[in-house]
Amino acid sequence: MSKGSSAIPMDQKFQLDDVIESQQFDRDILNDIFEVAREMENIEKNSPGSKILRGYLMATLFYEPSTRTRLSFESAMKRLGGEVLTTENAREFSSAAKGETLEDTIRTVEGYSDIIVMRHFESGAARRAASTASIPVINAGDGPGQHPTQALLDVYTIAREIGRLDGIKLALVGDLANGRTVRSLAYLIAMYKDVKIYFVSPDVVKMKDDIKDHLTSMGVEWEESTDLLEVASKCDVVYQTRIQRERFGERIDLYEAARGKYIVDQKVLDVLSKHAVIMHPLPRLDEITTDVDADPRAAYFRQAKNGLYIRMALLKLLLLG
């Protein structure tokens, strides 16, 4: 019996049992997800509440702090009529604090729920959870590894804002070494044609070679730069990220050296083309100044809202097909 087995005929079943990493997707699957996300926009805007997931329970297991991801998943489930079991700080407040293995936690939680959404501090934890569970598992971020649902909402946002995905120029800015969002996004955007990616980051948090090698193998042009203004003047999307203090451990000196080097402010807006957008996975610190918020090209809060539609779509597809 496969994961997520249901009475739906096989030709209607969603092609994925779990959502663990961006490499699982291809353009056809992305198109399917985005089509359902558009339906979810209409449900959310025009209906006080859908009942399509009534009777289903989603467990959220978050071993790292989260506001947007956890709340958007919980909102997505409730807007579709489902129920939520949640633990916000599982590292401290679940049996993990007593030394329980991840595998035992997953085996227990799957007995209470129909789908598990998990954020973990270790890269690869989501894959371990998925291989243990007989119900669908969604990776809501695994350490510095990946954050596939963020990448899905990012690509969906680019498509909605720019009107296309082929032929775009994209700047990834900030903490590229530890940023699971930019890693996942790079994998997805590489599926489109004539894309160019610019990496703009302090030396200490440059994009790792595995992503560069993957892009090269996919025929995607990429370039490293230290000049944010020059890159911004050429791009359709400037994707800013925060320098992640929590990934530096004791090396505060390295964090301080990286922080504040690349900031999106009025100078960036001045060189940015009229059709371009600024994105950010949030939360932000000071890497986008607040005066940018009023500019129509600031897409990050629209981007966060799109996360609701993408997560509604994934819950529907994984549970119902």
UniProtKB/TrEMBL annotation:
Top EC class of this enzyme: transferase
InterPro entries assigned to the protein according to its UniProt record, in alphabetical order: Asp/Orn_carbamoyltranf_P-bd (IPR006132), Asp/Orn_carbamoylTrfase (IPR006130), Asp/Orn_carbamoylTrfase_sf (IPR036901), Asp_carbamoyltransf (IPR002082), Asp_carbamoyltransf_Asp/Orn-bd (IPR006131)
Protein family membership: Belongs to the aspartate/ornithine carbamoyltransferase superfamily. ATCase family.
Name this polypeptide is given: aspartate carbamoyltransferase
EC number in record: 2.1.3.2
Pfam families: OTCace (PF00185), OTCace_N (PF02729)
Gene Ontology annotations of biological process type: 'de novo' pyrimidine nucleobase biosynthetic process; amino acid metabolic process; pyrimidine nucleotide biosynthetic process
Entry keyword set: Allosteric enzyme, Pyrimidine biosynthesis, Transferase
Catalytic activity of the protein: carbamoyl phosphate + L-aspartate = N-carbamoyl-L-aspartate + phosphate + H(+)
This protein's pathway: Pyrimidine metabolism; UMP biosynthesis via de novo pathway; (S)-dihydroorotate from bicarbonate: step 2/3
Subunit structure: Homotrimer.
Location of the Aspartate/ornithine carbamoyltransferase carbamoyl-P binding domain: 18-159
NCBIfam families, A to Z: asp_carb_tr, PRK00856.1
UniProt-listed Gene3D superfamilies: Aspartate/ornithine carbamoyltransferase
Top-rank taxon: Eukaryota
Reported function: Catalyzes the condensation of carbamoyl phosphate and aspartate to form carbamoyl aspartate and inorganic phosphate, the committed step in the de novo pyrimidine nucleotide biosynthesis pathway.
UniProt-recorded Gene Ontology molecular function terms: amino acid binding; aspartate carbamoyltransferase activity
Domain Aspartate/ornithine carbamoyltransferase Asp/Orn-binding: 166-317
